[in-house]
Amino acid sequence: MKFLKILSxxxxxxLLTGSVIAQEAPAKKKLAITKIAATDAxxxxxxxxxxxxxxxxxxxxxxSQVYDRVLSTKRFEILERSDADALAKESAAxxxxxQFQQADYLLTIRVDGFNDRMETRTFASLGKTVTSRVxxxxxxxxxxxxxxxxxxxxxxxxxxxxEADQLSANTVxxxxxxxxxxxxxxTREMAxxxxxxxxxxxxxxxxIGKRDKIVTINRNDTSGIKVGQVWEVFTLGGELVDPDTGxxxxxxxxxxxxxxxxxxxxxxxxxxLEDTGIDRLAIVRLxxxxxxxxxxx
Length: 297
Known about the structure:
The protein has 5 helices and 12 strands. The protein is of the alpha+beta class. α3 (52-72) crosses α5 (181-202). The protein starts with a helix and ends in a 9-residue tail after the last strand.
């Protein structure tokens, strides 16, 4: 009987311990994304230039692309966007703090620059005019910590794409809306940049494994990481306090440099270029990017 009581005691202890561990396990942060919109100035200018349809297409595509790219980071539980947008507007109008199903963070994106034009050059010797469609997009993404209403990151992103076509010698400069290819490409690029910034602002990329001269980083093939990129590695030091604002941060100590060699659906691997103390849980930040690979037929 005494043995059974002891066994029951240990069993209960194990159950409670398991419960505590489960409660302390990391959980995904909840993110609310408001509907993406352009500033009034941009909308007015695009309507006057006759490319309002292009801007509307970009906004609609960007709205779904950002949702998809942020979800693909596998770092957040994304809340219903339409409700989040309505409540954010209502809170702003009332001058109150935004609250939505205990959201941890709020992502707002405003397009503050857009151009869709055709640039032409005439080559008299060839008797032809080369026309290039150029699309430029600029947006500001702000990440707000809901509990404190503090903006933890606000970044301006700019992307541009150019397309060249061989047209007749009579072609003149004009605004273009004929092709959706550039619009799709530019929204995908912008969405990826924003999603990467959101993930890095809340969950910086980290080393999760090290073997010989290779490290594993917790970023997968949908995170924007690419083979050939060079990343710097840092370990966290003591707490730092800004004497002017009182803001608290952690010291980041440079301990090495790595180059991405393999990207998978689960994570990425990198070759160590410099190592003065790289270890598990070290933070990695992009230093040198590489251009996107052209699409193959």
